[in-house]
Design goal:
13 strands, elongated, alpha/beta, 15 helices, carbohydrate binding, DNA-binding, Rossmann fold, transcription, seven-stranded parallel beta sheet, 2 domains, 344 residues, single chain
Length: 344
């Protein structure tokens, strides 16, 4: 990608970027011409005739334009622009933002990919100089980190709010979710370095009073932005079974809880399922989460719908990224479909 400022030429659903300040090579110019013709509706054979080159050359020119970052293809899915559904989510739950996604494929990986891309765009648009970003690492947050574009900021900290139950162990040589978030904003990062669940309240008190853990928890309390997902009991069953919780606690979680919000297990009504466990849990509390200025929940899938709804109803979210089906389940199916083209 070239440096310097950019202008854009817009064709239907495609944007061609070319630098203003830096010179273009003859191949760059030819590849831009080929791309504009191709994305205006001509096939490669027709582009070849217009440019007086062979069809294989057109294919190479299009590949060159893509590799140089001249082409950005946007698929405008009307389902993700459902104005009435977004408005109903915002009205009912007092949301500042409701972003809808519609994964191209079924399955958890496709869902995380769609959520991660949209979540990264939202998070990136909100971070400003001097911010503290609180993060609960998880598979979803790892995908958000993958899609974050570099946006250097001054004096930004990324703080671990709690240990997510589904936080994947980083591959050798690959930075952690926390580190990748920090890298996107040229920020410092601080992990919690403490277990999520402890055996007793006195032990939790001792752990949270150690200097490092206390500093990280205090910074998390004062973070302007919190970014997290929620976990559902069914998907996380193996992780819960492998946790140090007692058999009795696991039975209550499996029978009463719809999932966890920042490692706090709640029922369908948003109530804490195990008060004693809640008192032995290290990390941000739900009342602390509720008081954040920016509370960004990135979560979707029918299996998470009930815990997403519980988070919404109890004020733990003011910016939501979810999928269309989950959104419709939450608000009910009586909201008519409307997107921008409906105005015409």
């Amino acid at each position: 990608m070239y440096g310097g400022k950019h202008r854009s030429i817009v064709l239907p659903a495609v944007v061609f970027y070319y630098p203003v300040m830096n010179p273009l090579s003859s191949r760059d110019i030819q590849s831009l011409d080929a791309a504009k013709l191709y994305y205006s509706g001509l096939n490669q054979e027709q582009v070849a005739q217009r440019l007086h080159v062979s069809r294989p050359t057109v294919s190479k020119l299009l590949a060159h334009a893509n590799a140089q970052g001249f082409i950005e293809v946007r698929v405008l899915d009307p389902r993700e622009q459902d104005e009435l559904l977004v408005a109903e989510l915002q009205r009912r739950y007092h949301l500042l933002d409701a972003v809808l996604v519609s994964p191209a494929r079924s399955g958890a990986d496709a869902m995380r990919d769609a959520l991660g891309r949209a979540g990264a765009h939202l998070v990136g648009s909100l971070v400003r100089d001097g911010d503290t970003i609180g993060l609960v690492p998880s598979r979803t947050m790892s995908t958000v980190a993958d899609y974050l574009e570099p946006r250097p900021r001054r004096n930004v900290d990324v703080i671990q709010l709690s240990c997510g139950l589904s936080d994947p162990a980083p591959r050798p040589g690959r930075p952690s979710t926390l580190e990748r978030f920090a890298a996107a904003f040229s920020a410092r990062c601080y992990d919690l370095s403490a277990p999520t669940f402890l055996a007793s309240v006195p032990l939790r008190t001792r752990v949270t009073q150690t200097p490092h853990v206390r500093r990280v928890l205090d910074a998390g309390v004062h973070a302007r932005i919190a970014v997290y997902t929620v976990g559902d009991v069914r998907t996380n069953r193996e992780l819960i079974n492998a946790s140090p919780l007692s058999l009795h606690e696991k039975e209550i979680i499996f029978s009463r809880s719809v999932g966890d919000i920042c490692a706090r297990f709640v029922d369908r009504e948003g109530r804490i399922c195990l008060p004693d466990l809640n008192n032995r849990t290290v990390g941000i509390t739900l009342p602390q989460l509720r008081h954040k200025e920016q509370k960004i929940l990135v979560a979707g899938g029918t299996e998470k719908a009930d815990v997403v709804k519980a988070a919404l109803e109890h004020g733990y979210v003011n910016r939501l990224v979810t999928d269309v089906h989950t959104a419709r389940y939450i608000v009910g199916t009586n909201v008519p479909f409307k997107h921008e083209r409906s105005k015409k």
